[in-house]
Write a structure and sequence with these properties.
CATH topology of the largest domain in chain B: Rossmann fold
Mean pLDDT of chain A: 95
Largest sheet of chain B: 6 strands, parallel
CATH class of the largest domain in chain B: Alpha Beta
Structural class of chain B: alpha/beta
Helix content of chain A: 40-55%
Number of strands of chain B: 12
Helix content of chain B: 25-40%
Oligomer: heterodimer
Structural class of chain A: alpha/beta
CATH superfamily of the largest domain in chain A: NagB/RpiA/CoA transferase-like
Number of helices of chain A: 24
CATH architecture of the largest domain in chain B: 3-Layer(aba) Sandwich
Number of domains of chain A: 3
Strand content of chain A: 5-15%
Number of helices of chain B: 7
CATH architecture of the largest domain in chain A: 3-Layer(aba) Sandwich
Low-confidence stretches of chain A: none
Strand order of the largest sheet of chain B: 1-12-7-4-2-3
Mean pLDDT of chain B: 96
Distance between the termini of chain B: 59 Å
Number of strands of chain A: 12
CATH topology of the largest domain in chain A: Rossmann fold
Shape of chain B: elongated
Chain lengths: 478, 222
């Protein structure tokens, strides 16, 4: 997919004036926050489980090489195959080879953000293989030639009228005068269309929420059941997963499962949690003949041992974006690549470079809600600050911002000079504020005053006011 | 260098790996598989635990029913099908517990054996176990209970023995380990919590996305 993260500012302006999008984004605020809170409040052990989840992932990451080796051995022991992909291109080639060698024409796909990260659908189509997204949201955006705007609710940016129009445009085999206004009608139509595709597919691709080193299993979590039909009906099941999805044991997965669904959708448990280990066994009447796992690195191994290692604890629940005022305002597409919201603001510069993704960690008010709701306690604001530092060190932010920051830093390091100039500047600004005591225009502050007025200072600096109050306290009471 | 070695080398270099204690820590964790924190919610005496299981399952829009014994199963299934205006036909595998019921008491009920091809209205499975904490059924693949029966029919009827309703998922996982062996797993382990659903259209939750629209659970005994 085309990366538009470098034009985040322009993307945001466009998003803010998109009435359809703004209406749809209301569903994020209304749909996720209360449900999560209710589910979390109903489990007294939730906070303690967060600590456990964090500890499990920290342990798994600190021993990642060893767990990966054990995982691989167990997959092989269960008759499966492991393919290692250093880059997105490696991963695409592995899957294209599997398709070519097995004469695959149609691929059904469960929801996978890794598939988006490696731009798999474009590669499949170019190779003459037809990819069919089966998650309802993914299916809808595939019809529109779009990408997910949310990691667990890919079509959250759309309203049902838009979806109806897409179904009418694409499902031309159905009567044109059919009733399609209700949500239920749209769902039923998609169910019927996709049901046929599951049976046509030669190969099914799913992601993984966890890879279990103990057993060589992959685990997916869905509500629709599409991930299951995708893996049990075709001859070949291919799992694509990044290396940090490893957990040591089934018990460890069970701990984190208690965090995942509650944080994502406010469910105690998603409808379908499926543990897959190898292909069809002797005596199995159904299931795929072949089971393959494509393990993707794509820059993650370079995050280990750095200040961004903790980001690899992420379980992709989406709670950070569901609670983010910036995401609420601009939606996911403005972020310009695969991962939006606070987790995307940290992960995107790691994976595509701070030169391209540098705007994203700047698009934060640092309100801290993302860190508060993150089930894995990832310090997202701190990591966004790390990216801002790196951006500054590499001279990537605009000259005016760099010059302004340097000037400010010069004075901030010299408090007496700072106070002297502030004591001159503040009364002057106060006087210039006029009768309204507000500015509708100020040099260097156009970004603010273009949209709203800036209140003028009250006339004295904070330190001056502080000194005055302290002096008053000292006065004897008469 | 292969992709495998390149990735593992990079991971090791980034972690500064190299001491033997790491291998010990990994071996201990894998062999011990320590249980983490088990919420108190499901830790109840038998009767209360089964009640909690039914309560949690109904909260996520499954329906539940209690049966005194497997002998009651054929009549209960026939009654369910009638109440939903469904054809008197069920798809099922070869589970001995289900086979043990006397199906001749329901001569009108057609029994189709083997995996589903997508043309069945109703499927019948026997669960390996269940989790009271979340109202979850646990089923595994194999000839007794084909995985396609869990997903393709519109209505999924699942029988679970009351003795197999555990308080927490960890207990069921330990029983899976006992049955299949340490580090071994059936091809597929399905944990099912309510009927299929999707909220992908305007975040409005609707039942019956790709899997069954209805999940009916029959707890036998207890």
């Amino acid at each position: 997919m085309q990366i538009t993260s470098p034009t985040f500012k322009a993307n945001s302006v466009k998003a803010l004036s998109d009435a359809q999008l703004q209406k749809a984004l209301g569903n994020v605020r209304a749909g996720f926050i209360d449900k999560r809170k209710k589910a979390v409040d109903a489990l007294p052990e939730f906070e303690a489980l967060r600590e456990n989840g964090k500890a499990i992932k920290d342990h798994a990451l600190a021993h990642l090489d060893l767990y990966l080796e054990n995982y691989e051995a167990q997959v092989k022991a269960a008759g499966g195959h492991v393919h290692w992909a250093q880059t997105a291109e490696d991963a695409r080639n592995i899957i294209l080879d599997l398709c070519a060698s097995r004469g695959v024409k149609t691929v059904t796909k469960g929801k996978s953000m890794i598939s988006e990260e490696i731009a798999l659908n474009d590669a499949l189509e170019a190779a003459g293989v037809r990819p069919v997204e089966t998650d309802l949201g993914e299916y809808i955006i595939q019809l529109r030639g779009e990408h997910p705007s949310h990691i667990i609710a890919p079509a959250v940016h759309l309203n049902k009228e838009q979806i109806e129009a897409d179904f009418r445009r694409v499902h031309t085999h159905l009567p044109a005068d059919r009733e399609l206004v209700e949500h239920e009608k749209l769902l039923t139509e998609a169910r019927a269309v996709l049901r046929a595709e599951y049976f046509k597919a030669d190969l099914g691709i799913t992601g993984a929420n966890f890879l279990v080193a103990e057993t060589g299993s992959s685990i997916i979590v869905t509500n629709e059941g599409n991930g299951d039909l995708t893996q049990i009906l075709p001859r070949v099941h291919v799992v694509i997963a990044s290396i940090e999805k490893i957990v040591p044991t089934l018990e460890d997965a069970a701990q984190i499962l208690r965090l995942l669904a509650r944080s994502a959708t406010g469910q105690d448990m998603s409808v379908y949690t499926t543990v897959s280990t190898g292909g069809r066994r002797e005596g199995d009447p159904d299931g795929p003949d072949e089971y393959h796992v494509v393990l993707l690195d794509n820059g993650r191994s370079s995050m280990l041992g750095t200040e961004f290692q903790e980001m690899l604890r992420c379980i992709r629940c989406g709670a950070c974006m569901n609670h983010c005022p910036v995401y609420h305002a601009v939606g996911g597409h403005a972020y310009g690549w695969v991962y939006p919201g606070p987790m995307g603001a940290v992960l995107t510069p790691s994976l595509i470079g701070v030169d391209k993704g540098g705007h994203l960690p700047n698009a934060s008010t640092f309100c801290g809600r993302c860190e508060n709701v993150c089930p894995m306690k990832i310090p997202l604001p701190k990591m966004m600050r790390h990216w801002r530092e790196r951006e500054f060190e590499r001279g990537l932010n605009p000259a005016a911002a760099r010059y302004g920051l340097k000037t400010w830093a010069f004075f901030a390091k010299r408090p007496s000079l700072y106070r002297f100039f502030a004591s001159l500047g503040i009364p002057a600004l106060s006087a210039f504020g006029g009768a309204k005591h507000r500015f509708s225009w100020l040099p260097f502050a156009g970004g603010w005053t273009k949209h709203r007025e800036l209140p003028a200072p009250e006339g004295r600096t904070f330190l001056q006011q502080w000194a005055q109050r302290e002096a008053k306290k000292q006065e004897p009471v008469r | 260098m292969s992709g495998r070695d390149a990735i593992l080398n990079k991971v090791r270099a980034s972690l500064g790996a190299g001491n033997a204690n790491r291998a010990d820590a990994v071996r201990d964790r894998l062999s011990g598989a320590p249980r983490g924190l088990i919420p108190v919610r499901g830790q109840l005496p038998d009767a209360a635990r089964i009640d909690l299981f039914a309560y949690q399952a109904e909260k996520v829009h499954a329906t539940t029913e209690r049966l005194a014994s497997y002998a009651d199963l054929p009549a209960a299934i026939a009654a369910y099908l009638r109440s939903k205006n469904l054809p008197a036909s069920i798809r099922m595998g070869d589970d001995p517990r289900l086979n043990g019921a006397d199906w001749s008491t329901q001569p009108a009920l057609e029994i189709l054996r083997g995996p589903s091809d997508g043309n069945d209205e109703t499927g019948l499975s026997h669960a390996f176990g269940a989790v009271a904490e979340t109202g979850t059924l646990v089923l595994h693949s194999g000839g007794d209970n084909p995985t396609t029966v869990n997903f393709l029919p519109e209505h999924h009827l699942v029988v679970v023995d009351a003795r197999d309703v555990a308080g927490d998922l960890e207990t069921v996982l330990a029983r899976i380990r006992d049955k299949f062996g340490k580090g071994q797993m059936p091809r597929t382990l399905n944990m099912i919590t309510g009927p299929s659903r999707s909220g992908d259209i305007e975040q409005k939750m609707l039942l019956g996305a790709h899997g069954p629209r209805a999940l009916h659970i029959m707890v036998v005994g207890g």
